[in-house]
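SEQUENCE-TO-STRUCTURE ENTRY
===========================

Backbone structure tokens: a row of integers, each naming the local backbone shape at its residue.

Task: work out the structure tokens from the sequence, keeping to the layout shown below.
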Amino acid sequence: MNGDWVAASVRAQTMAQSRVGAAGSGRLAVQPSLADALLLLADSPYADRLARCTDLAVAQRATRDAELWQLRVLAGWMPAGGTGLAQAAAGAFERDNVVALARRLDGGRATGDSFDLGALATSWRRLRTAASREELAQALRSSRWGETGSDAREVLPDVLTLVWLRRLVAVAPQARPWAGAACALIAARLVLVDSAVPRSRVRELVRPTLGRTWEAARDVAQFQACMPPWLQPVFRGIEAPEELWRAEAAMRATVEADGFRLLRSSPPGPGVVLGAIAVLAMDAWRVRAALAAAASGTGSSEVLDAVA
């Protein structure tokens, strides 16, 4: 095994061990205010980014900045062969940059600075100069993101997410169950919550994984029956569209469990690093949910309870 992968794997395990964790997030959630919760994160990997935060949205964004920074640090320990994995994982942040840019081009309010991807950017340096929606669509078409479809204005976030998932699976096959579940949840939201006719580009992207029969589903049970057998458990216990958030929370818990398994049982190499990336992403998500609970003063988080 390449010695550089050994070093990257050790670093990945160390970073995963420094997470706040489920118990730590639970302690954050029961704090009487956001300020009290932030005090508990003073010695966490999020501390530097959270310094002087007083607003929930700003604090939640800071956790994502910290997550991306951890990914960039981890990428620095990987051998050249790990570049594809690091860039694919960072694709979620590049996707969000593109979505935010598209909203600004539509006249929407800017929601903060773009994520700083550094060397993990694949197309952002070129995309960010687009001065119109048409220019952005053309730049995307000639980038690794590809065609977004003629109806991209409405479905751009979903299209980019589906492309990102495909890119992740291409370099990390262990992520296939996570990507499949995410595809299924996007499709379920479109037809069961939004009551929308799935757009052509979305159908094209999910067809290799989900087939086509789901497009006509009218309730959760029918949708679940249309799924490939390996994806039907994603909707276990879900009876109504309003409960799909529970399926998403369960999916995240599964990603975390798989991440821990990869960390513990994989030999030094990409599997260990992928496991750390999954665990760190889940940790940041838990912290965001916990901060929201503290800011609301409810003393608990239904979202965290769902993945306990």
About this structure: The mean pLDDT is 93.
